[in-house]
Amino acid sequence: MVEVLESSFVVPSEPTATETLRLSNIDQVAPPVHVGFVYFYQGNQAKDFFSVETLKASLSRTLVLLYPLAGRCVVGQDGRKEINCNAEGCLFVAARSDLTSDEIKFEPSSELQKLFLPSADFPESLSLLVMIQVTYLKCGGVVLGIATNYVLIDGCSAFYFIQTWAAVARGDVANLIPPSFDRNLLRGRTPPRVTFNHPEYTTDSIPAAAPKCCLTAKFTLSRKQIQSLKSRHSGGSIRISSFSTIAALVWKCYCISKGLGPSTQTRLIFVADVRRRLSPPLPKTYIGNVVVRTSAVSEVSTITSKPVHVVAEIVQSAVDGITDDFVRSFIDYLEVMQGKILHSTLELAESDLRISSISGLPIYEANFGWGAPQKTSGAVAPGKNNVNLLDELGNNNAGLLMYITLDATIMPLFEKAFYEELILVDTENKGSFSLESAGTCSS
């Protein structure tokens, strides 16, 4: 269905610094995977519509500014990962497909990833920091797939790169804000001072559960529904964010659908971008991982019996606990535990749920000179017992999309609990729901 026309490495258009970029302690524990995003652009009559030459030339100029992204992730003599800024370039693939946009489901799935992101099954692929594929469809449209290596590039960093590349392609460079690669900003203290517990990062591996069939479902929440849920907390002692409100709703429905024992301890694990929580705050354009996992913890009986706005207070308390001191303690903890943190800690206990959000990030600001994307999607569905949140494509009043992957047997129970909670605040419109991938078996 997809035929590769050319594959090459795009290098910086000018000589760049040849150096080794030290990776922070947080970078060291980032999973070594490429995270992909896919954009669809409707064809138009422009003579150079998504010209390979224009894309490659603008990418080459962008890599002068973001030169470490043209390097390679390697393991240094001390056993720590680092970036060799050798200007070997980003992988760029041009392809064509006999598919039309109407035949493509722009939702996270292994099929979307396979079709529109470069294959990463060659030995050196994990060392690459950026991989790009532009695919020309039968209908005249274009799909642009961009995969970035999580070892150096978190969500904020990825969308900054995409925004910058798009601006260079448009010739709109006057207002570009330079990136920051200053690793001293996240350096550990001497001596290390671990003043908080960080149980989300442990040396213990959680035994894998027996494989079960899972479903990934998409739910849509309107801004009105989110505001209605938040308004139930009016007059409370603490300010509740939209994230905490939605996370509380999902956590409660998850605990109900799982049928866990009332005294069982459950965790809602979430990932927070801490750029603005540090003192002083990090530059918005800092390139690297500035995300920290933490969790809200409670007994199942508390989560299932309390109203959503009360559960939201539990979540918000955990969110508010992410302070500069907390983050510095975490960095020092990683220093003390250097090399002992397992990537397998991404496994979840059956009573746990993990939620991440890219709501508020400029995921749709990807105009390369031929207009904004008409559709966009993450390339991979969330793993089991994982939830992803992102803004719906549209204006400022657009809603929120939620993707959740659960055991197939409990998905109907989750859906029932979810809409029963929504009906309490919005009797006219319970929202929308669709199953996006069925029969996917995972542990």
Automatic annotation (TrEMBL):
Instruction: Offer one Pfam family short name for this entry.
Output: Transferase
State the signal peptide span: none
Gene Ontology MF terms in the entry: acyltransferase activity, transferring groups other than amino-acyl groups
Q: Which residues form a coiled coil?
A: none
Transmembrane portions of the chain? none
Q: Which UniProt keywords apply?
A: Acyltransferase, Transferase
Q: Which InterPro entries match?
A: CAT-like_dom_sf (IPR023213), Plant_Fungal_Acyltransferase (IPR050317)
The record's comment on protein family reads: Belongs to the plant acyltransferase family.
Q: By its UniProt entry, which PANTHER family does this protein fall under?
A: PUTRESCINE HYDROXYCINNAMOYLTRANSFERASE 1 (PTHR31642:SF138), TRICHOTHECENE 3-O-ACETYLTRANSFERASE (PTHR31642)
* Protein name, entry field: HXXXD-type acyl-transferase family protein
- Organism in which the protein naturally occurs: Rhynchospora pubera
